[in-house]
Structures are given as structure tokens and as C-alpha cells.
Structure to design on (217 residues):
């Protein structure tokens, strides 16, 4: 991957959270009661950085946030219980945050969902896929794919940045993130729908520069 595209993919991953991490519960142009606009400008990027920097936040998770008053609200999905608590503890440490309302859903511990995560990951990110440019990896690989397909990929996820996140719950797959164009969004949708055992696909990928829109597979 060229340096420019690599940097862009990393920006996409951050943009996913920035787009979702809006300030809510206020009138237009007004800061939440008790918090100045300068506080919001300072704290929102810190929340975003703290979460994206968590070592166990990866391709099978999706966390976003909102701010009201001096409380940070955490939403989304975590493939491991430790991520939910780690995200809360990280945000609590930010100066000025008085409380954290942690509504992150921990996904079921399911061998079948683990198998689907591995299969969907390879369908999107394997080295011969046009979508591989959205990741720093080249698929799971033949040496350990059997073990991961049988279960274990949740606790041993692929490392590195991934612009397309894969959320699996009871055999249902949701794609979250940002892509360059509609063609890549459609291709991701097609590839995931071809994975055996997937019950449904919700394509929530955002095309760069456009508003988010949910698309069902």
C-alpha cells in the first residue's frame, strides 16, 4: 500500500468515530450546560484518541460516543468484555469528564460467530481482494486460518488498521466504516453475503464525503 493510501485508510478509521462521536442534547450553537465550547473542542478528540488507541480495539469492534453535560456516553459493540471496561476506564481519565455512561454491548461468546468473523475477514481482506487496500494486513493466512476458523479469532484478532469493521452477532453481520466509493461498498456487501452461515448483512459503510445510510444485504 502506498504511503498516501495508507495514511488515508487510517484517516477513514478515525473519521468513522468522528462522524458518530457528535455532541448531542443541546440547541444549535450552544454548549451543553456546564461545559464551554472550548471544553468540547478539547475533550471530543481526546475521547476519540483514547478509544482508537486501546490495544484491544480492533476490526471486530465498533465504538462511538456522544457528549451531554459533562458526561460521555459510549455506544457500539465490543467482541470482548474487557474492551467495554477498558474503554470506560480510558475515558474516565480525561480531565473534565465527570461521568461515563457505558452502553457498549458485549457481543455473544459464540464459536459460530467466531467462525463467521474469520470467514468474513478473509472475504474482505485477503491479499487478492480489491478491498485489501483498506487494511494493513493480507488476510488471516493459511498457517493459522484453520484454528481461527474453528474459533479463537475473537481473542487473537488480526492486528493493524482496518477501515472496514466487521460486527457479528448471532450469525448476523454488520459492516461499519468508510470506503472510497460505492463500488467498494457494493463489493464488500456481495462478498460477505457469499460467506456460508451468514444469516443477514447490514451494510452501514459510508462512502467518503457522503452521509451515512444503512443498506441491507
Amino acid at each position: 500500500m502506498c504511503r498516501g493510501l495508507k495514511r488515508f485508510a487510517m484517516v477513514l478509521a478515525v473519521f468513522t468515530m468522528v462522524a458518530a462521536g457528535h455532541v448531542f442534547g443541546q440547541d444549535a450553537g450552544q454548549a451543553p450546560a456546564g461545559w464551554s465550547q472550548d471544553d468540547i473542542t478539547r475533550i471530543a478528540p481526546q475521547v476519540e484518541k483514547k478509544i482508537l488507541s486501546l490495544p484491544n480495539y480492533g476490526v471486530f469492534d465498533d465504538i462511538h460516543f456522544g457528549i451531554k453535560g459533562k458526561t460521555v456516553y459510549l455506544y457500539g459493540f465490543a467482541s470482548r468484555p474487557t474492551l467495554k471496561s477498558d474503554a470506560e476506564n480510558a475515558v474516565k481519565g480525561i480531565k473534565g469528564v465527570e461521568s461515563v455512561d457505558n452502553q457498549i454491548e458485549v457481543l455473544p461468546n459464540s464459536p459460530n460467530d467466531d467462525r463467521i468473523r474469520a470467514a468474513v475477514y478473509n472475504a474482505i481482506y485477503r491479499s487478492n481482494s480489491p478491498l485489501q487496500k483498506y487494511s494493513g494486513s493480507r488476510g488471516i493466512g493459511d498457517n493459522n486460518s484453520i484454528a481461527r476458523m474453528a474459533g479463537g479469532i475473537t481473542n487473537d484478532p488480526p492486528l493493524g488498521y482496518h477501515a472496514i469493521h466487521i460486527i457479528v452477532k448471532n450469525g448476523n453481520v454488520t459492516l461499519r466504516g468508510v470506503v472510497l466509493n460505492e463500488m467498494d461498498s457494493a463489493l464488500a456487501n456481495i462478498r460477505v453475503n457469499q460467506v456460508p452461515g451468514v444469516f443477514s448483512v447490514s451494510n452501514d459503510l459510508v462512502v467518503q464525503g457522503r452521509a451515512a445510510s444503512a443498506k441491507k444485504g
Q: What stands out?
A: Confidence is low (pLDDT under 50) at residues 1-28, 212-217.
